[in-house]
Design goal:
It is built from no helices and eleven strands. It is mainly beta. Strands 2, 4, 5, 6, 9, 10 and 11 form a seven-stranded mixed sheet that branches.
């Protein structure tokens, strides 16, 4: 069984920074795309940033220039560095990964809350 565990969320003032981490564990052969999604209260879950196994990235327009996604393949970990945070960045951030494992599939973390105060 594969598990994704996020950490790094919290409360921060507007203009501040946070770094989220997500580590995959279990019997993993390889990990393809890894992403971060965000779900604000009462809204759908939307992709924020994505990184391929080769390091290619893309971002939602709302976070371009402020957020940076990276990964450490040796540690099965993906990071999201968030800077110049805005109140509209508030939400639950979920890690997602496409994993080739004993049970290959699409996996989600439990989510970590990010709250940006104005």
């Amino acid at each position: 069984q594969v598990q994704l565990v996020e950490s790094g969320g919290g409360l921060v003032s507007a203009g501040g920074s946070l770094r989220l981490s997500c580590t995959a564990s279990g019997t993993i052969f390889s990990i393809g795309v890894m992403d971060w999604y965000r779900q604000a209260p009462g809204k759908q879950r939307d992709m924020v940033a994505r990184i391929t196994s080769g390091g290619g990235t893309n971002y939602a327009d709302s976070v371009k220039g402020r957020f940076t996604i990276s990964r450490d393949n040796a540690k099965n970990t993906v990071y999201l560095q968030m800077t110049s945070l805005k109140p509209e960045d508030t939400g639950v951030y979920y890690c997602h990964a496409e994993v080739t494992a004993a049970y290959t599939g699409s996996y989600w973390g439990q989510g970590t809350q990010v709250t940006v105060s104005s």
